[in-house]
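ok new one. same drill as before - structure tokens go in, u give me an amino acid for every spot. 412 of them this time. try not to just spam alanines like last time pls lmao
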């Protein structure tokens, strides 16, 4: 194009966001700035959305400064995007600040803050926010109820969750979809009500998908219900025969029950079928740049320093009683090799990099593409206490806020 205006650049940035190419979206925004084309509110929504998906809090903060300098108004759409961004970066306090600053709010504003509070483990506050929404006569929609049910799940409020689910159907005439049922299954599963969760799946008016069955299987692993776990795993493998998560969780349950022959049989099946586990990938922002780590990868320019630092971290952990949990290691190798695989998981590499590259009081924020394994969860808890760092990990299923040797999630 001989000429590119604000609309041209915004269309490209938004196109990258819609295609889930978030790093490319931010690169396009930088090119737009180099071209001296002024952004507008629509550009900002797309850029902030990209920051949210990448967990790029520093970039998101810079965007707010840019808006003030350029005189770009924070309308309701930008405000909603900022609430979502701060929530997805694990900074719910800043999300609440934006919410309070907004002069105009719509149902998406209320839904964004309810979801943000819920996924960050502030269940009671999310429910209070829902009641505030009703008091100002803003009608909730199906997404709002996903936030409310998620809040009940994180707070362990089983009875309230059931009440909200029935209220959604009877009072607000909203037909539950698969996501709502997934929230209820998660709520019951985390509370250890495995039988009721199974009965709920049987009573659903639609066929359960792999996500819902996977949620119940994960609950079976947490609560040690191998009988239901085997049944659910069988259904899952009928839906998706190459689903590596099923093999990992089932193998973990067999190992905890000392059924080592079943562990060997399962891992032999994995090898024969050639099933590969999706590689773990962690993103971390440092000085406005997104750094990507893959389990066992050495492509980062600071790779030697990172692995050396990680070795020191493992030594420090062992000195306070850490022993690697290899029950979820998806490889058929000697115990020592399994431990190495566990040590080199992507979130551990990201943390080693952060400890090398950031100031002592900086919060470490990581976005993980998969569910975090038990070993990484236990290790990061210890790291947060040993090094006095707050660590926030957003994995495929939830947020984990680690502080002073503890984690916000209670059922991992």
């Amino acid at each position: 194009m001989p000429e590119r205006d604000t609309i041209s650049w915004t269309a490209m940035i938004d196109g990258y966001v819609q295609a889930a190419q978030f790093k490319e979206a931010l690169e396009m925004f930088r090119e737009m700035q180099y071209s001296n084309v002024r952004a507008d509110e629509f550009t900002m929504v797309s850029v902030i959305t990209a920051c949210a998906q990448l967990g790029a809090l520093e970039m998101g903060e810079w965007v707010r400064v840019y808006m003030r300098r350029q005189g770009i108004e924070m309308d309701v759409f930008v405000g909603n995007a900022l609430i979502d961004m701060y929530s997805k970066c694990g900074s719910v306090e800043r999300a609440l600040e934006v919410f309070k600053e907004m002069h105009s709010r719509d149902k998406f504003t209320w839904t964004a803050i309810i979801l943000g509070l819920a996924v960050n483990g502030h269940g009671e506050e999310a429910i209070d926010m829902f009641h505030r929404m009703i008091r100002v006569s803003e009608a909730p929609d199906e997404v709002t109820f996903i936030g409310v049910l998620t809040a009940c799940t994180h707070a362990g409020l089983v009875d309230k969750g059931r009440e909200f689910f029935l209220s959604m159907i009877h009072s607000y005439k909203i037909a539950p979809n698969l996501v709502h049922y997934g929230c209820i299954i998660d709520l019951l599963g985390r509370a250890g009500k495995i039988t009721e969760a199974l009965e709920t799946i049987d009573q659903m008016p639609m066929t359960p998908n792999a996500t819902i069955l996977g949620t119940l299987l994960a609950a079976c692993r947490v609560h040690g219900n191998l009988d239901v776990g085997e049944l659910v795993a069988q259904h899952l493998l009928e839906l998706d025969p190459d689903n590596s998560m099923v093999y990992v969780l089932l193998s973990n349950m067999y190992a905890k029950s000392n059924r080592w022959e079943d562990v060997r049989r399962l891992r032999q099946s994995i090898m024969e079928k050639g099933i590969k586990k999706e590689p773990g990938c962690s993103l971390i922002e440092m000085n406005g740049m997104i750094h990507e780590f893959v389990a066992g990868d050495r492509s980062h320019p600071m790779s030697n320093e990172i692995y050396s630092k990680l070795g020191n971290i493992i030594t420090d952990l062992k000195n306070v009683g850490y022993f690697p949990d290899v029950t979820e290691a998806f490889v058929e190798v000697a115990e020592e090799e399994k431990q190495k695989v566990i040590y080199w998981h992507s979130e551990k590499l990201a943390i080693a990099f952060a400890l090398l590259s950031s100031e002592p009081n900086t919060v470490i924020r990581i976005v993980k593409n998969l569910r975090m394994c038990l070993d990484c969860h236990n290790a990061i808890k210890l790291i947060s206490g040993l090094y006095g760092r707050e660590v926030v990990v957003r994995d495929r299923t939830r947020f984990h806020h680690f502080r002073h040797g503890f984690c916000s999630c209670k059922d991992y």
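The two ends are 53 Å apart (CA to CA). and btw The CA atoms of residues 334 and 340 lie 10 Å apart.
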